[in-house]
Amino acid sequence: MATQKQAVRESSMGNKVVVPSIEIGLDDGEQILEAIRSGCVDAFVVEERDGHTVYTLQNVDLPYSSLVQRMQQGAAMLNASGEVVYCNPSLAALLRTTAEFLIGTTFQNLVAPADRASLPQLLQSLELGSNETEVSLRRVDDTVLPAKLSLTSLSRDNSVIGLLVTDLTTEKSHAELASRIQQVQDEERRGIARELHDSVGQLLAALNMNLASVRKEASNLPPSLSAMLDDSAIIVEQVSKEIRTISHLLHPPLLDVAGLCSAIRWYVDGFSERSHIQVELHMPGDLGRLPSDVEIAVFRVVQECLTNVYRHSGSTSCSVHLEREQDTLRLEIRDSGHGMPKSGKERPASGVGLRGMQERLRQLGGTLELDSSETGTTVVGTVPVTEPGSESRTGSENVA
After folding, report:
1. Radius of gyration from C-alpha coordinates of the chain
2. What is the separation of C-alpha 319 from the centre of its chain, rounded to a whole number of angstroms?
């Protein structure tokens, strides 16, 4: 009775699958039998004329098989054509269907149309190592699942690809909530700044005018009362100045009127005066007007980073670099302090914090990276800028 001729083509997948090829000799068949007897595999994919078929050995309960079948993360194996040849129950549940339905399906068809174009290139680049990407998957009921795909080649010729699918629904919901909270905070800051300026500021101005009227009659007052009157006028002036500073820190009017560069320049000047930390500022003379959400996000990152320099770094100087690189705005803030503590308990919890800054830029398609050592900390943020009319101007300035 004729038997199918098979050979072990690749066993780098561990104990899950042996991928056979056609037209092989007796020695190759013995290798397969030995692999099965020794428990090296619990299933294999047979390459036949009409496609790939997965054969699972009976009564097998190897740790790898149990792990993949029971893991909450979706898992699948794709053949060279991108068809699903195996999937675990979790992936079927994520896509609200059955494993039987997914087997033989081209995985690209499960990706939302807007994300399909990037998948073939991602599969081709697996020769360079594992890849990850975020896509939207289309369930059988036409709902959309935001997911992260992790792909790894399980054979030297990329004929078998391992795929892990992570549900990002909760993460995306948290990100949207964080973004909304930041928007509300910005709106509240803007409102409080306006109230401080228009209401409290006006009341203090009226009080100052009343004190000025009384001071005209200071010659009729005892010297002690006249001195108290002068002190009161000075205190009112100081309070007015503090209120104005707080109002501008909450939401600098220059950000709305003159743009990002003017707002950063104003903030850096005030920061240096208040903290006695020398700040070297490098940025174009004029970036033009950028989208408002980009301007406020970059300004808040500068504000947060310089606050952290003052509170935690121990550095007497730092630098701020802002530049336009084609369609990307790049911000770098560097200090020469003692760096961030390694222990999580010792790490400072300041304001919006690192995660808040990262989320601000991530929502705009940007990134924020931090590099800290005993010689200082460097924060680099990038954000895409594609709005028309936001071209960078020539010329630069250095402000110490």
Report:
1. 32
2. 24
The amino acid at residue 75 is: A
How many of the other CB atoms lie within 10 Å of CB of 77?
24
Q: How confident is the prediction for the chain on average, in pLDDT? A: 77
| The pLDDT value given to residue 335 | 92
Q: Looking at this protein, which amino acid is placed at residue 36?
A: I
Cα torsion 287, 291, 294, 299: sign: positive
Distance in angstroms between the alpha carbons of the first and the last residue of the chain: 89
Amino acid identity for residue 297 in this structure: A
Largest CA distance in the chain: 128
Segment 147-163 mean pLDDT: 82
Please name the fold of domain 257-400.
Heat Shock Protein 90 (3.30.565)
Spatial distance between the Cα atoms of 24 and 171, rounded to a whole number of angstroms: 49
Q: Where are the domains of the chain?
A: 1-65, 71-167, 169-251, 257-400
Q: Facing residues of 74 across strands?
A: 165
- For residues 70 and 121, the answer to whether their CB atoms sit within 8 Å is no
Span 167-214, pLDDT tens digits:
988 877 777 777 777 778 888 888 888 888 778 888 888 888 888 888
In the CATH hierarchy, which fold is given to the domain comprising 71-167?
A: Beta-Lactamase (3.30.450)
**What is residue 38's predicted lDDT score, i.e. its pLDDT?**
53
Whether the model pTM is above 0.70:
no
Q: What would the two tokens of residue 269 be?
A: 């000047």
Tokens at 149, concatenated: 């795909």
Domains 71-167 and 257-400 share a fold: no
| Chain centroid offset of residue 373 CA | 22
